[in-house]
Recover the amino acids of this structure.
């Protein structure tokens, strides 16, 4: 399903509201499913941006992902992402296209 994604953290640190407002949303097809997670060494629920061509993920996928908020115009997905071999907390605000004037 296509959403406008805003990644709400940088290396685990929440972005302040003034910086968050300036983040350019990524229009992407989000998939969620249970798969083997290399960094966790087990099966986990993962959220990722679908990439139809071979290659790396467009943005780091969320491991142990869970939808922790949902309303009429969007969802919030929390999890951990791997960057350079380190796991960091991450949260995606995923709003429906057309929501809030987009």
């Amino acid at each position: 399903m296509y959403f406008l994604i805003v990644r709400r953290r940088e290396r685990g640190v929440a972005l302040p509201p003034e910086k968050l407002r300036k983040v350019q949303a990524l229009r992407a097809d989000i998939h969620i499913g249970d798969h083997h997670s290399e960094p966790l060494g087990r099966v986990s629920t993962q959220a990722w941006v679908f990439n139809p061509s071979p290659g790396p993920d467009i943005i780091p996928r969320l491991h142990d992902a869970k939808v922790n908020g949902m309303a009429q115009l969007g969802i919030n997905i929390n999890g951990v992402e791997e960057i350079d071999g380190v796991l960091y907390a991450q949260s995606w605000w995923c709003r429906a296209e057309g929501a809030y004037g987009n």
